[in-house]
Design brief:
- With 159 residues, the chain is mainly β.
- It contains one helix and eleven strands.
- The radius of gyration is 16 Å and the shape is globular.
């Protein structure tokens, strides 16, 4: 297998907001929202009118890391804050219905809490949105890069 997805679950923006387990992902799962493209890249697709998860107004096709996938409630386990953790990837943002459409590339958050940091593409710029308080009400938006349509770029976020 090209990707180790044994500790990840997938959420898709269909009308049921389908969640796919690590076991299903490891069995070469593909759908119209998540597939391996002809160049070998992991590809996500989201239509602007797709299904949304509880607490969100935006459709998403998303991988969520499960730090303890065999636990009875795996979503409750998160990274330890006293250890070195990171998320990284190589990205290409394809066609959007609007050049101002916001696309979340990465986010790190605790269970049942707002994201501590969200990396977001918007109008061909990449921003880090960093929560400054525990309620998530105060946020700093920092420009960290720019990209052209269909340009491939890499990003690593360390926590």
């Amino acid at each position: 297998d090209q990707f180790d997805l044994s500790k990840w679950k997938l959420t898709e923006p269909d009308s049921s907001v389908t969640e796919t387990s690590p076991d299903e992902l490891e069995d070469d799962y593909e759908s119209s929202y998540f597939y391996t493209a002809s160049d070998g890249s992991m590809t996500f697709y989201v239509k602007g009118s797709g299904g949304t998860t509880d607490g969100s107004n935006y459709p998403r096709s998303e991988l969520r890391q499960l730090c303890n996938p065999d636990a009875s409630s795996p979503d409750r386990y998160n990274w330890a804050t006293d250890s070195y953790n990171y998320v990284e990837g190589t990205y290409k943002i394809g066609d959007r219905d609007s050049s101002s459409r916001k696309v979340v590339i990465q986010q790190i958050h605790a269970y049942d809490a707002p994201p501590l940091i969200k990396i977001q593409a918007e109008s061909n710029k990449v921003y880090a949105l960093i929560k400054l308080d525990e309620d998530g009400d105060d946020e700093d938006k920092v420009l960290i890069g720019e990209f052209d349509d269909d340009e491939i770029f890499s990003l690593k976020t360390v926590m």
